[in-house]
Every structure is written in structure tokens, then in C-alpha cells.
């Protein structure tokens, strides 16, 4: 069922795992560092979307995280609840979810709340999405097109996993180990859950880090001491509103997180901003067409700003409304009597970058200060480098620190770049 894990995300397991298991995502600027043993995560490529059952309702996009500990903090409760309901060791559930979803950053998880890569069989009546994925068949890695389940919320995605395991008789033997995550994951692998021959060892490595962190933080008792519920919940498929990429409309101050990485050519620039045309953008190494918008009263000095925005910052239309409001509000604060940080500049040194520009920076500077071409958030028009550079006493930095996340922009923390703000913390 499951694929060879391929490039989107890396999970790093330290060489001292036997004595001090640790799992963490290491970010170098917009790129990903590779250290010790590298686990490559699902590279789903959307082909078609379908809403194949039930009545549509609101969909909540799953929240991505940047490390295993963040992932545990965000989703451990859902895993513990489902583990107790279905008699599955929750440590194994967390490890599987982190492994399959790349800490929630895979397309299948981000847009469709499917953390476990569960395919939609003939008995599935809920919504689906068809994606390209990689599997290991007869020892060879092949790309196949497969239909996957889509869920309305992250909680529904975790519940769907419990339902899936319990409803399939081939996994019955695994349910004999409600308190032993290592034996459980071995049993479902032996029953055909995954095609990656190293799936069990990878999962157990993550389990060790999960167990260590949960014990340190005293979050939950170990599954070996948890008594499964007496009755199993009835299965619900759950339906979603259309998860297909948003094809038209106008950007507003509220960012459409569900479609943040999608083609934005049909998304009109927000009121108050200026259309700067259609350009080649890149996300996770893939070409996407994006509409750029110039933000007034926000000067920017890099070549793309000068070429496409007449000296103003240019960003993806999907965030044009949010950034326009951020800049407008920052100016209003700076010019108000409430300002306690003095007069400060509101300007950018870089926003959108072309492939040629990113390749130049990669060749001249390299990681960690320059993202790998095709993977930088600048190339998606979703990142801003402010002109205050590393000056954390700058009034604009202080204002962003207090307010930036309310508009959907987050400081790059690892490695720390106070001047770099992008959307990765919101997806």
C-alpha cells in the first residue's frame, strides 16, 4: 500500500539513538539539511480531485509542523484517543503519522487530512483525491497513480486510521499488541501495510524518540498501561468541501491556507495592490504558475521588485491581501502616538525571486544562507526579507515579532534569520 519515501521532507535520527533517541527536522534557510540517516517523505503530485460521497461541509486544513516534538505536541492527543478507542499503541500511531506525512507537510496531509497514506478502496464512500505516488514493487521503485481517502479534519484523519486498521481482517494479528508499538508495527508490515522494506526500522526509530519525549513531558501514560475502550466507534467516512485547488476569486486579508501552494494565476490581486503579471514559481522543486502583486508603500530593492513592481515588493497573489494589511497596519502604528519604538523603516530587500536569481545565490552563497533552487519560499512569492537585516532592535522587527503571525507571516527560526518572514508556520 505504501510508497518508497521520497523527497519533500527529511527526518534526522542521531547516531546515538540507542542511548538517546532524538528525531528532528533540520531547516537550512528554505532548504533541508541531510544528516546521518535520511528518511525521504512522500512526494505526492495532485492529478485530479473528486468529491465522491456525502454532503459537503467546511474543511479544516491540517496544521504542518517543523519538528517531531512540534508534531507530537499538536497531534499526540488525537493519536492517544484513537489508540485507546481501537486498541492500537498510540506511540506507533504518532510515529506512522510523522513518517508518512513528513510532520504534516505532505500534500496529502496538508490539503486532505490523510496522515497515513490510506488509499480509497471500493468500499470507501467518502471523498477522494487521485495522486501520483511511488511504491516498491518486486524490488523496483515505480510511480503509480492512486486514489486516496480525503478527510474533513485532522481528527477525522486519525479516526479514519483506527477504523481502517480495525475493519481489515488482515491486521487482526496486530491488534493483539495494544501495548507494544514495536510488535504492532511489525505485525501490520508483515500483513502488507507497507512496501518499503525498511519501514519497520524507520518507524521504530521514530517510536523511540516519541516515547522519550512523551515521558520527559509527562504527556500520556505508556500504551502498555492503557486499557482499550470496551466498544469500538461506528465508522464514519466524513466528507469535505471541495479540496481541489481554488481556481478563481480575489485575495483577501485572510490567507487561503488550503491552497497556498497551488497555481494562483486565477486569483486576482487584493484591493489596493497592483497586478504584476504571471510568472514561473516553484514549490518543492515543482514548477507552478503564480500571479504576482505589487504592494504599495512597501519599497523593495531586489531586481524582481524593480522589474515587476516598479520598486515595490512583489508577492504571490494568494498572500497579497494579508501582506497589504500587514504593511498598512505597520505604517499606521509607526505614525501613531502609540508608537514606543520610534520612527522605523518599512522596506524589503527581497521578496519574489526568479529561478535565475535563486541559482545565482545558491552558487555564490550556498546553504544555509541561500535556499536550494526550486525549494525557496521566495520562488513561490511567499517570503519577505525585510531591510532591517539582523538588527533585532529595529522597530519593524519588534512590530513583526508582536504582530506578524496574526497576518500569517512567521519568522524563520532554524537557522534564525530575523529579517526573513514567510508563511511556513501557518501551513
Give a written overview of the molecule.
By secondary structure, the chain is α+β, with helices and mostly antiparallel strands. It folds into 2 domains: 10-225, Lysozyme (Orthogonal Bundle); 249-426, Muramoyl-pentapeptide Carboxypeptidase, domain 2 (2-Layer Sandwich), CATH 3.30.1380. Helices cover 28% and strands 21% of the residues. The chain has helices at 68-86, 90-101, 107-112, 154-167, 181-190, 199-217, 303-309, 320-334, 355-364, 395-403; strands spanning 10-13, 23-24, 27-28, 31-32, 37-40, 45-50, 128-137, 140-149, 249-250, 267-268, 274-283, 286-299, 312-316, 348-350, 383-386, 410-413, 416-422. The strands form 6 sheets. A 4-stranded antiparallel beta sheet has the order 14-15-17-16, with helices on one face. A 3-stranded antiparallel beta sheet has the order 2-1-5. It has a 3-stranded antiparallel beta sheet with strand order 6-7-8. It is elongated. Mean pLDDT is 80; it is low at 1-58 and 238-247.
Count of the separate structural domains: 2
Would you state the CATH class of the largest domain?
Mainly Alpha
Q: Helix segment count?
A: 10
Distance between the termini: 26 Å
Largest sheet: 4 strands, antiparallel
Instruction: Write out the strand line-up for the largest beta sheet, numbering strands in chain order.
Output: 14-15-17-16
Offer a concise description of the structure.
The protein is of the alpha+beta class and 427 residues long. The chain has helices spanning 68-86, 90-101, 107-112, 154-167, 181-190, 199-217, 303-309, 320-334, 355-364, 395-403; strands at residues 10-13, 23-24, 27-28, 31-32, 37-40, 45-50, 128-137, 140-149, 249-250, 267-268, 274-283, 286-299, 312-316, 348-350, 383-386, 410-413, 416-422. The protein is elongated and about 65 Å long.
Amino acid at each position: 500500500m505504501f510508497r518508497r519515501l521520497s523527497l519533500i521532507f527529511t527526518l534526522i535520527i542521531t547516531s546515538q539513538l540507542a542511548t538517546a533517541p532524538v528525531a528532528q527536522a533540520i531547516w537550512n534557510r528554505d532548504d533541508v539539511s541531510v544528516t546521518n540517516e535520511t528518511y525521504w517523505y512522500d512526494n505526492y503530485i495532485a492529478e485530479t480531485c473528486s468529491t465522491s460521497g456525502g454532503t459537503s461541509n467546511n474543511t479544516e486544513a491540517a496544521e504542518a509542523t517543523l519538528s517531531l516534538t512540534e508534531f507530537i505536541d499538536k497531534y499526540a492527543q488525537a493519536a492517544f484517543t484513537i489508540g485507546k478507542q481501537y486498541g492500537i499503541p498510540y506511540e506507533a500511531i504518532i510515529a506512522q503519522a510523522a513518517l508518512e506525512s513528513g510532520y504534516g507537510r505532505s500534500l496529502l496531509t496538508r490539503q486532505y487530512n490523510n496522515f497515513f497514506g490510506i488509499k480509497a478502496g471500493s468500499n470507501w464512500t467518502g471523498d477522494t483525491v487521485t495522486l501520483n505516488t511511488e511504491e516498491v514493487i518486486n524490488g523496483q521503485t515505480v510511480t503509480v497513480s492512486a486514489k486516496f481517502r480525503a478527510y474533513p479534519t485532522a481528527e477525522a484523519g486519525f479516526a479514519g486510521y483506527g477504523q481502517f486498521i480495525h475493519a481489515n481482517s488482515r491486521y487482526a494479528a496486530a491488534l493483539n499488541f495494544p501495548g507494544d508499538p514495536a510488535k504492532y508495527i511489525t505485525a501490520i508490515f508483515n500483513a502488507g501495510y507497507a512496501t518499503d522494506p525498511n519501514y519497520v526500522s524507520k518507524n521504530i526509530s521514530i517510536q523511540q524518540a516519541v516515547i522519550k519525549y512523551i515521558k520527559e513531558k509527562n504527556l500520556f501514560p505508556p500504551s502498555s498501561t492503557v486499557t482499550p475502550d470496551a466498544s469500538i466507534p461506528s465508522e464514519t467516512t466524513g466528507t469535505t468541501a471541495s479540496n481541489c485547488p481554488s481556481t478563481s476569486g480575489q485575495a483577501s486579508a485572510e490567507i487561503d491556507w488550503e491552497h497556498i501552494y497551488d497555481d494562483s494565476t486565477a486569483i486576482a490581486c487584493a484591493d489596493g495592490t497592483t497586478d504584476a503579471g504571471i510568472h514561473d514559481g516553484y514549490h518543492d522543486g515543482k514548477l507552478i504558475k503564480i500571479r504576482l502583486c505589487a504592494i504599495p508603500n512597501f519599497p523593495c530593492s531586489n531586481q524582481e521588485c524593480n522589474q515587476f513592481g516598479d520598486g515595490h515588493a512583489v508577492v504571490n497573489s494568494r498572500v497579497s491581501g494579508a501582506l497589504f494589511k500587514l504593511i498598512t497596519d505597520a505604517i499606521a502604528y509607526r505614525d501613531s502616538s502609540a508608537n514606543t519604538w520610534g520612527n522605523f523603516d518599512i522596506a524589503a530587500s527581497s521578496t519574489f525571486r526568479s529561478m535565475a536569481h535563486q541559482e545565482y545565490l545558491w552558487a555564490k552563497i550556498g546553504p544555509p544562507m541561500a535556499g536550494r533552487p526550486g525549494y525557496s519560499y521566495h520562488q513561490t512569492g511567499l517570503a519577505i526579507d525585510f531591510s532591517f537585516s539582523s538588527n533585532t532592535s529595529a522597530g519593524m522587527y519588534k512590530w513583526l515579532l508582536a504582530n506578524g503571525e496574526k497576518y500569517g507571516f512567521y519568522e524563520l527560526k532554524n537557522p534564525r534569520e530575523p529579517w526573513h518572514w514567510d508563511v511556513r508556520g501557518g501551513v
